[in-house]
Amino acid sequence: MIAGGMPGNESYSWTVLGEPVAKGRPRSTRNGRIYTPAKTRKAQQSLAMVSAPWAPRAPLTCGLRVDLGFVFEPRPSWSKKKKAAAIDGTLRHVIKPDIDNLIKLSMDSLTRLFWVDDTQIEEIHARKCYGPQAMTQIDITPLPQKQDKSMTE
Predict the structure, then answer these.
(1) What pTM, to 2 d.p., does this model score?
(2) pLDDT tens-digit profile of 104-122?
(3) What is the DSSP letter of 113?
(4) 3-class DSSP state of 147
């Protein structure tokens, strides 16, 4: 499920409800064939599918800033006190999954949907934390074109 901004705005913002998934390492068979784990493939396809309504008509070609928020629910086995500490930010999410693998899955899922190539990403900000509901928050902002002084002289 998604809630968020309107397609066609200057900035693209939406939230994907559900537990964030990290990109798994490529695996190989005994024959040496390399493949992407099924969990990773499904998560990428799902994120791309639910993000599509917020995508521009054609992938953006400018520089971009991407902000990602990965929110995890506290474990059901935790005490009320520990859950409260997690949700208010006192207890930090310093366990797996690694933030770089969460970022990789998101970036790979959104490439060719929001941008042509991930080389266009000039700025990225990501965080992971606990919250009352698991979700991935995504905000993509086109950056203004920088003027090259040599071109104006």
Answers:
(1) 0.86
(2) 999 999 999 999 999 999 9
(3) T
(4) coil
**pLDDT at residue 66 is higher than 80:** yes
Return the amino acid letter for 95: I
How far is 73 from 84, CA to CA, in rounded Å?
11
Beta bridge partners of 111: 115
- DSSP, collapsed to helix, strand or coil, labels residue 132 as coil
Comparing C-alpha atoms, which of 16, 119, 24 is closest to residue 69?
16
Q: Beta-strand (E) ranges in 11-114?
A: 12-17, 27-28, 34-35, 64-72
Positive or negative torsion for Cα 134, 23, 7, 146: positive
Position 66, amino acid:
V
- The dihedrals phi and psi of 3, each to the nearest 5 degrees, come to -135, 145
